[in-house]
UniProtKB/TrEMBL annotation:
<comment type="similarity">
    <text>Belongs to the uracil-DNA glycosylase (UDG) superfamily. Type 4 (UDGa) family.</text>
</comment>
<keyword id="KW-0234">DNA repair</keyword>
<keyword id="KW-0378">Hydrolase</keyword>
<dbReference type="GO" id="GO:0046872">
    <property type="term" value="F:metal ion binding"/>
</dbReference>
<dbReference type="InterPro" id="IPR005122">
    <property type="entry name" value="Uracil-DNA_glycosylase-like"/>
</dbReference>
<keyword id="KW-0411">Iron-sulfur</keyword>
<dbReference type="GO" id="GO:0006281">
    <property type="term" value="P:DNA repair"/>
</dbReference>
<keyword id="KW-0227">DNA damage</keyword>
<dbReference type="GO" id="GO:0051539">
    <property type="term" value="F:4 iron, 4 sulfur cluster binding"/>
</dbReference>
<dbReference type="InterPro" id="IPR036895">
    <property type="entry name" value="Uracil-DNA_glycosylase-like_sf"/>
</dbReference>
<feature type="domain" description="Uracil-DNA glycosylase-like">
    <location>
        <begin position="28"/>
        <end position="175"/>
    </location>
</feature>
<dbReference type="InterPro" id="IPR051536">
    <property type="entry name" value="UDG_Type-4/5"/>
</dbReference>
<dbReference type="GO" id="GO:0004844">
    <property type="term" value="F:uracil DNA N-glycosylase activity"/>
</dbReference>
<dbReference type="InterPro" id="IPR005273">
    <property type="entry name" value="Ura-DNA_glyco_family4"/>
</dbReference>
<keyword id="KW-0004">4Fe-4S</keyword>
<dbReference type="Pfam" id="PF03167">
    <property type="entry name" value="UDG"/>
</dbReference>
<protein>
    <recommendedName>
        <fullName>Type-4 uracil-DNA glycosylase</fullName>
        <ecNumber>3.2.2.27</ecNumber>
    </recommendedName>
</protein>
Amino acid sequence: MTTWEELERSCLSCTKCPISKDRTNVVIGDGNKNAKLMFIGEAPGEEEDKQGKPFVGRAGKLLDLALDALELSRENDFYICNILKCRPPNNRVPTEYEAQNCLPYLRAQVKLVQPKIIVCLGATAMKYILGRNLKITQDRGKWFQKGEFHIMATYHPAALLRDPSKREDFYRDLKSVKEKLKEMIQF
């Protein structure tokens, strides 16, 4: 999968997991395909499955509000996608089997976008991008370097809907991302 067309064709025809049978749409990604900033979440939800775009439900609207406040837009400043490309039943956490089947698509997306900064939205994205021994409550907001990527994990916006006390940390993390992005663009 060395082109967007190949990636999209592969994702659209994928039947590796049983969840592919119940999908309405494959949710590949959205935003600027040449962005220096990439957000990675867990999996599509109900609204994402209906529309075929990531982060368009309530959590996505909250994320958009925070990023708009920082003057970051999907069209210009970032690309956004998920570990899984199909919605798990009842929005449950992806199984290891499902995640492992979708990770090659995510790796292809990262290669095609070539971001400098990756933001993991939530524990599932953090687990598959940064490793299994980290905890979102302890390790969110910290910068990690993996190869040429600067990576940070923060709360998934859906967590903020359940627990508004996390909003301040989330917004502080996003401000740190914006500062890092400014730093990297200047070089």
